[in-house]
Specification:
single chain; alpha+beta; two-stranded antiparallel ribbon; 3 helices; 4 strands; zinc ion binding; ZAD domain-containing protein; metal-binding; zinc
Length: 107
């Protein structure tokens, strides 16, 4: 099957209400297991401690809110969303720490 058809067909099935189990990001099936964009996750790292929804992470990562698109993710995309968000926060924390260490010390 042509790669373009593999991507377009699930989208068409979603838009025609033939299937509601389509991942928002990869167009894969979520029939076995899915994560809602409104589900919350608790993220705890040395540089981060917060609870937020996948929709909030999307917003931080620049993924536009679009109610007409699927509001669920497959497990792979949910994991990638969390890892992408954590990486962005790690980079921000690292920049802040380096900027603080470069400031001249007054004695």
């Amino acid at each position: 099957m042509d790669e373009e058809v593999e991507i377009v067909m699930p989208g068409l099935k979603y838009l025609t209400s033939e299937s509601e189990h389509i991942c928002r990001l990869c167009f894969g099936s979520t029939e076995q297991q899915e994560v809602s964009l409104e589900d919350s996750v608790k993220l705890q790292r040395p540089y981060l401690d917060e609870s937020l929804t996948f929709a909030s992470m999307f917003s931080e990562l620049g993924v536009f809110e679009e109610p007409s698109l699927p509001q669920v993710l497959c497990m792979n995309c949910a994991t990638m969303t969390i890892n992408s968000y954590l990486f962005k926060k790690l980079c921000q924390s690292s920049n802040e720490n380096w900027n603080m260490s470069k400031k001249p010390r007054t004695e």
